[in-house]
Specification:
761 residues; 3 domains; seven-stranded mixed β-sheet
């Protein structure tokens, strides 16, 4: 007999055996709670700005903001001074009587409301440094000090500061299509980011008296004005990051003459700020495709950091079409650059780090930058900027256009663990990857943290898995990259946790208990499952790249992402977005029970009674019906014997009439019932194992659950005896409870009787 598995769909028989269990009494009505209904009640309506396909509409607009800045760093007093000229271009259809400007440094003012945003009971444990910081030391006196705001001609402009926002009132509204030029002068005290865990600031090295600066959010920046929020002037509370407009930057930064700097944009005056040898290496690095070329060596840094220059140098940078600006500067920085060919351009992969980062940083930093640029470009678009810079800063992980700060430091003897090594590589991949999301695909981080963190963490996972696979020598001895986020099983502890401390992904970053799992890990895992299990790689990759390319240098909304993924794939995913992004439901799918059936020409009275109960004529009752093998309700699959199911006279006569061979009749019929205690619907992945040692893997589409959200049944017709059934055998769906994923249950022999009783019940 051929080894063929038959899957039969006897709808009338299913009605007889299953639908009779429904309650025939009249019930109250309800609204449509089907998991597969469209998300019209959640999505913003499509319009002429963001269309129904998830693309920019015919009337889509965004503002343009250009900055010319002169910045000076007072290294001795850790203070920054700045003056900027801002050109604001109003591409909206509206007149703008005032402008809103972000003052993010104001979160460091002594009286900043953000310092009191959380409750504070007495901690059971506390580090001595935290005790001193909380109860003894004076609070750091940070925040912007605005000297003046003036128009282009030097006339004062009225302005009002509200926490981290400043409104500038204009003498006349800026008309649609018009532009306005004004100036701001300011200064602020730079914080020690190691003590306060700030996103930017300096680290002080006590052994040599030097500071290494990573500077961002250092200038008053225009808020976004768009068709979704109007002015996005939601206060900066610390977790929700930034919403910013694109523009061109000309920035002149004055620092001590012995400093080395990297920044957003292209350096305009390398000959003026570099020594002759440094300039020679800098120029040569543009063709260093095989390995990094050191512009400043560790030996040179060790000599340089022993003295402090009284002279100054001004580094000049130009950046086009960026949404922000950051820079790093210190006399302690080792500097290396490597060229990367991407498409038709050569991009510079750059690392900047103190000697305290070696030997770890010289071994892996630039390699990680190179891998990130290649992998992210493959899944989105060719990296459009001239460089990507990784800067070492203690306890940091923060991103800005073309530049980012990253942690990972060996001990004083230069030793480091795999945890430190892979932690450093992963954070570099993540922060450099932020160039794509949100520095180019420019989502609103202040409102939707997952749109940059989650998408970035997902592509970070893809990059980590390629790191070493495409270049075996990149990490010697690596067989599989130990990704911390992305694999389905990694998110199970969070999703299975206390629901009181879990929020939907579609939550503002300020309003969640666990930002890491919520904005980073869960959306990354969801996208990984979407790619591997739901859509398939080809359909997913095309749709994901379509989204990235549609929204390069633009402001997408969540609906734009959701709609594009469907529009570019022809796969309805509303059920997926609803479950994974709008709820905190979990995946829990298992095997509820299995019954064995055989053919019979004589339906019993019970079936006849139920058939008539629902108004059917007995003449419509099928001639041949399945009957349950009474022994099978508690049978042991390892000892169950073959049933004589080929003795139906009606079936035999029919086969003869059709000229069919009775040997083709399957020897076994099983009804497998799957349960879904969890709230999330997912494709049903099942592995059937047979007595002859063969296995069969079937993925039933998610639509299997569309009419019964609690349980579904499948008939397995086979000429082989079924011995086990396993749901989600490779842990693809983040199932939070695997106890019910196997039949027979994977329990000790003493528990098997309990299992049989459960099946029988």
């Amino acid at each position: 007999m051929k080894s063929i598995t038959y899957r039969l769909n006897f709808s009338i028989i299913f009605l007889v055996l299953g639908s009779f269990l429904l309650n025939a009494q009249t019930q109250q009505g309800h609204t449509n709670n089907n998991k597969f209904k469209q998300l019209y009640d959640q999505f913003a309506d499509p319009n002429r700005y963001h269309n129904a396909a998830g693309a920019p509409g015919v009337d889509y607009f965004q503002q343009k903001v250009d900055y010319v800045m002169d910045i000076e760093l007072d290294d001795e007093n850790s203070r920054l001074y700045g003056e900027e000229t801002i050109t604001y271009t109003n591409n909206s259809p509206d007149q703008l009587p005032y402008l809103w400007i972000q003052l993010d440094q104001n979160i460091r003012k002594k009286d900043a409301p953000a310092l009191e945003k959380n409750g504070s009971g007495n901690s059971v444990t506390m580090r001595p440094s935290s005790f001193v910081s909380n109860y003894i030391n004076e609070p750091f006196d940070g925040g912007f000090n605005i000297d003046w705001v003036k128009d282009e001609k030097g006339n004062p402009l009225p302005h009002k500061i509200n926490q981290t926002m400043m409104r500038v009132d204009l003498p006349q509204p800026i008309p649609s299509g018009g532009s306005y030029v004004f100036k701001i002068k300011w200064w602020y005290n730079i914080n020690n980011h190691v003590e306060g865990r700030g996103r930017s600031g300096y680290e002080f090295f006590e052994e040599d008296g030097n500071k290494a600066y990573v500077i961002a959010q250092f200038f008053p920046r225009l808020c976004v004005y768009n068709d979704v929020e109007g002015w996005q002037n939601y206060q900066f509370w610390g977790n929700g990051e930034f919403a910013l407009e694109f523009g061109d930057y000309e920035v002149n930064i004055t620092v001590p003459a012995d400093h080395i700097m990297e920044a957003t944009g292209s350096l305009q005056n390398p000959k003026e700020v570099l020594s002759r040898e440094e300039y020679k290496r800098f120029t040569a690095s543009a063709k260093s495709f095989d390995k990094p070329l050191l512009i400043v060596t560790e030996e040179e840094v060790r000599e340089k950091e022993q003295s402090f220059s009284n002279k100054k140098s001004t580094w000049k940078y130009h950046a086009k079409n960026v949404r922000d600006f950051g820079f790093a500067t210190s006399r302690k920085f080792i500097w290396e650059r490597q060229a990367v060919e991407l498409g038709t351009q050569n991009i510079m992969a750059v690392s900047l780090y103190p000697k305290e980062g070696n030997p770890l940083w010289e071994a892996y930093s630039t390699k990680a930058v190179v891998q990130t640029l290649k992998t992210y470009s493959k899944f989105t678009f060719d990296y459009p900027y001239p460089k990507a810079v990784s800067v070492h800063a203690k306890n940091q992980g923060m991103e800005y256009p073309m530049i980012c700060w990253n942690y990972g430091r060996p001990d004083e003897e230069g030793n480091y663990s795999d945890r430190t090594k892979f932690g450093m590589i992963s954070v570099i991949i993540h922060e450099v990857g932020h160039n794509f999301f949100p520095m180019i695909v420019n989502s609103d981080e202040r409102q939707w943290g997952w749109m940059d963190e989650g998408l970035d963490t997902f592509v970070q996972y893809l990059t980590e898995q390629e790191f070493g696979a495409t270049n075996p020598e990149a990490i010697p001895g690596l067989t599989a990259y130990p990704s911390r986020r992305g694999a389905p099983e990694k998110i199970v502890p969070y999703m299975a946790g206390d629901q009181e401390f879990i929020s939907p992904i579609m939550s503002n970053p300020e309003n969640v208990y666990q930002l890491g799992p919520n904005a980073y890990a869960k959306p990354a895992t969801a996208l990984n499952i979407l790619r591997e299990t739901v859509m398939g790689r080809e359909a997913f990759d095309h749709a994901f790249k379509t989204y990235a390319q549609r929204w390069m240098f633009k402001h997408p909304t969540p609906e734009d992402f959701f709609r594009t993924m469907e529009d570019a794939s022809a796969i309805d995913l509303d059920w997926f977005w609803r479950g994974w992004f709008y709820t905190t439901d979990v995946v829990d799918i298992g095997v509820k029970g299995i019954k064995k059936y055989y053919y019979s020409d004589t339906p019993d009275q019970k079936i006849k009674d139920r058939f008539e109960q629902y108004g059917y004529d007995l003449e419509d009752l099928p001639d041949m019906v399945f009957k349950i093998d009474e022994e099978s309700e508690s049978f042991d699959p390892n000892t169950a014997s073959e049933n004589p199911i080929g003795d139906s006279q009606i079936l035999q006569e029919y086969l003869e009439e059709e000229g069919l061979n009775s040997s083709e009749i399957p020897a076994y019929f099983y009804e497998v019932e799957f349960e879904k205690p969890g709230g999330l619907v997912m494709p049903l992945i099942v592995e059937y194992a047979y007595a002859d040692g063969t296995k069969e893997r079937i993925t039933y589409p998610v639509q299997l659950w569309r009419k019964n959200d609690a349980s579904v049944k499948k008939i397995i017709a086979s000429d082989k005896e079924l011995v086990s059934v396993t749901v989600d055998p490779d842990n693809e769906t983040a199932d939070v409870n695997t106890d019910n994923n196997s039949w027979p249950r994977k329990e000790s022999p003493s528990d098997f009787d309990k299992f049989k009783e459960k099946i029988k019940g």
